[in-house]
Amino acid sequence: xxxxxxxxxxxxxxxxxxxxxxxxxxxxxxxxxxxxxxxxxxxxxxxxxxxxxxxxxxxxxxxxxxxxxxxxxxxxxxxxxxxxxxxxxxxxxxxxxxxxxxxxxxxxxxxxxxxxxxxxxxxxxxxxxxxxxxxxxxxxxxxxxxxxxxxxxxxxxxxxxxxxxxxxxxxxxxxxxxxxxxxxxxxxxxxxxxxxxxxxxxxxxxxxxxxxxxxxxxxxxxxxxxxxxxxxxxxxxxxxxxxxxxxxxxxxxxxxxxxxxxxxxxxxxxxxxxxxxxxxxxxxxxxxxxxxxxxxxxxxxxxxxxxxxxxxxxxxxxxxxxxxxxxxxxxxxxxxxxxxxxxxxxxxxxxxxxxxxxxxxxxxxxxxxxxxxxxxxxxxxxxxxxxxxxxxxxxxxxxxxxxxxxxxxxxxxxxxxxxxxxxxxxxxxxxxxxxxxxxxxxxxxxxxxxxxxxxxxxxxxxxxxxxxxxxxxxxxxxxxxxxxxxxxxxxxxxxxxxxxxxxxxxxxxxxxxxxxxxxxxxxxxxxxxxxxxxxxxxxxxxxxxxxxxxxxxxxxxxxxxxxxxxxxxxxxxxxxxxxxxxxxxxx
Amino acid sequence: xxxxxxxxxxxxxxxxxxxxxxxxxxxxxxxxxxxxxxxxxxxxxxxxxxxxxxxxxxxxxxxxxxxxxxxxxxxxxxxxxxxxxxxxxxxxxxxxxxxxxxxxxxxxxxxxxxxxxxxxxxxxxxxxxxxxxxxxxxxxxxxxxxxxxxxxxxxxxxxxxxxxxxxxxxxxxxxxxxxxxxxxxxxxx
Lengths: 587, 189
Fold this sequence. Notes:
A: six-stranded antiparallel β-sheet, B: 7 helices, globular
């Protein structure tokens, strides 16, 4: 039996960065807002009561989504049978108030001007013939310049630590000189660089590149934001990723935008409420609300005038497919919009072993501290000459060295026994890595739809992911790995080992939680699910926020553009949609 | 023991002692209590299949599709130990725990490579679980039953939890820095 609750103005599905930002921005209107979050509540005050514990949080993933509740099926290509992702591996799906914003690392590099309009950039640089027939690369419909104030707003909210490289068009050495023009410097100065980052900076400068401290939403000092959010100073304890910060130095929605929304009595948060579907009217052109499972297992209908989907990107797509919002993508005919342009990130890099006179203290670190170069990111070098479309950042990071996961040994070392043990002990203090997240373009054959066989705990079909790295992307990864090896040698490592993503793509080893696409934004309703304001073309009282709206993936982390777009869409809703509900872009 | 039988305990003790042996570099997994860790993990939520989607069907999988067996970790370990002991009995006339150290290394090498013929579960999947549990128990916080005395952390120089290094990065850049490891119980005091 389904209980029907009193209607509200706005229902928000999922309360991570996107849901939190939109909740904060819309709560000020006084409209009645209900936010539904599938996971538990999290106290906003600092001093997380749970001690850091690698086994519980990094290995057993206790703060992440439980696959027995919902998961997806996976295959490399349409000729295979997709099978369930029975445990988390390749990516970590967040849950709970704050979402993956609680457990992220805090890397906060804006995407470049190129990244917002890659199709136009490729055509301008190489001609349309350079785009392979199956590559469905697309411009966003929103330019970097339009989004700049919202990137700035996110950095202010996050107390991001960094150094500008392009302040209103003036290039500044020591910052990222390849970035788009910024209206403001970062709120906080860069983090303290470790020994490996000092070596990286020296080596990349000697090679003629332009190193800069990686912008990090790990506060380099205690700070209060213009909104009154209080940050503690980062202790470099080395337990950012997959864990909650114990001193509120790592920006997270649960102590920033969500409590700000909660100051308004018209905002209500309901935790442990799993939204099952969005309800549409008979014509399928208007959402009437959502149906969810409450913490006691009861099914509840929540009517609403406006529905915001801000779950993890993959789950936004899942809910759209389950609810009949937007036409599902058909790769054979290349028609339909929901599920298309699913992308991920490829990776090239190097592991460097130094001699016994080097002390790296790998355990002193944070999720975001790092030194990076953008010389080989898309648009910053001659990628066509290198033989591919795209590129990526190359960086050295020190995220902590929790030993169950981090105990690198030189290749050729046995996996166990005395020789393994000796190699772990010899290497631990003097090993570091270079990582290079590479862009992934979208392809017809990489997409999301519903699985015909497997179901979740609520009886719904699982989302089905069909994905593999394509030849262009492996060229990106190999190019990046070659550069990483050159840098590693210049850093003075005695042993440099080259790494590239496995192909075929595997769901098993952790790679990155940078899944993009599936409900992409654009200017054409036949090739995009949402318009430039993230409003569903076919159901204009539904907006979708999250990485699922990004038409392709870049060679850097997607949180900043996703969060900037959340501010952008919230403003469009507040200033335009609520005043005159209806399509914000004529069809 | 909460989960392991006497025979299984003997197997796990012999296996972890072979996978991470005591040697001149320091104590091994057996001395650091990894058998106890494995038992507690198998009796607990992880061993019993928490966070593991176990709905069927279970058809042939590609290597890229990950774990596709209809077993919880505890069930896989139990079946695998029985298979391994039966295989050792046939190959060496003894269960694994009764083998000489060189025979144990040879047996685990055959199991790791999947060349040992197991009756019920894939030998290499069993080995993957066994090795992962052994390394987890060796390096996890002592609160979980292994890494006794934080000795594994001391061996590699990992200072454990509760560290604060904001004022140590610059002064100790490329200089030795020894920190006495702390575990969860130390910082809770």
